[in-house]
Fold:
Amino acid sequence: MKTAFFSLREYDELPFCEEYSKKYNIDYTYTAQYPNEENLSIAQGCDAISITPCEITEKFMEKLSSYNIKYIICRSIGYDHVPYECAKRNGIKVCAVSYPPDCVANYAIMLMLMASRQVKEIMLRNETQDFSLKGKMGRDISDLTIGVIGTGNIGAAVIKHLSGFGCKILAYNIFEVEELKQYAKFVTLDELYKNSDIITLHLASNPQTYHIINDETFNKMKDGVIIVNTARGTLIDSKALIKNIKSGKVSSAGLDVIENENDICYHNQSGKVMDNDEMAVLKSFPNVIYTAHMAFYTKTTVSNMIEKSFEALKYYERGEANPYEVCM
Structure:
């Protein structure tokens, strides 16, 4: 068994590749670049490829099939960047790894705290030695109502960790989770929109959740609502978010992800013209924090993502049921 890693970071992922390649007895090759027409050939002779969120076209999929690639392993929880039906038609199975939810949950709470206390504005003005108080007054998270949309592993961790702050917590999920009812009240989406001071998103990206936050839903929210997104950029209509920040409907936002960020994050883009107008506008606002998809980024998580990439292949090598395989 052999796998080709794309967009592999030599400064953090490569040492774990060395370690887990030996542990699972699976060979690998790699490139630091995203997959493209020129470098896709490194997958020849491999059984699988491993990728971070990036553009995988149907043309790529057909080329991978011609190389007899059997598996695509996503080094991420999300797999919406892979055209699943095309992979299925080409006989390629898709896996998505998992990692402990605390890293993203804690990051989301950090963004809530930073947004509610106007930390970006404070830091920007500190740079010019403006240490005045005017315009920097924040809100105490303990006095606020937090709406958590999505109560999977990460959303559940957010709710549990937030319970220690003394804030009121509302939750929405397709299925209510009994264990979480000691910390949060499950409500309808409209109730959550109407009553939340902060709304944090913890949903997968799929056709049902695409632009779940849009102009219509913003109209249902409180004036001055804070929006936090550490899940997937496609959950929020960026144009609608910009419009509602300008109007003051949204008082601030903490965004780890935004739309159309694939092939932008994780690489030094200094001096380049970015083909993402909404990113440029959002970054320009003093009340918007954008951290370029960093919520996952801890030593524990990176180790998990690499190890589980090898582990997923080991399941296939042994002919065993694979818990990381995506089934749609």
The two ends are 26 Å apart (CA to CA). The mean pLDDT is 95.
